[in-house]
Amino acid sequence: MVHASEHSIGLLYLCHLGCALRETLVVTGPQRGRIWADDTAESGGFRPLRDDDGTPLGFARWYRRWLEAAEVSQDAASVRA
Fold first, then answer.
1. pLDDT digits over 11-46, tens only?
2. Can you tell me the distance from the alpha carbon of 77 to that of 11, in angstroms, rounded to the nearest whole number?
């Protein structure tokens, strides 16, 4: 699927997961403050991300989860070194 610029209006791309899969923060409209996955590279479209309990994922929780995963990754790298 070819990326169309109209897909990114009102979005702030936060991270790239590889294979052109990305996670984005919605910055305008009714979903403002929520995190969505952009799976358009694999013809999956956009989908809202949810926390473990099923609630829509906001930026603060997304960022804490990202930091926790980075910390675990760093700790694992320290053990291997």
1. 888 887 778 788 999 999 889 999 999 888 777 788
2. 33
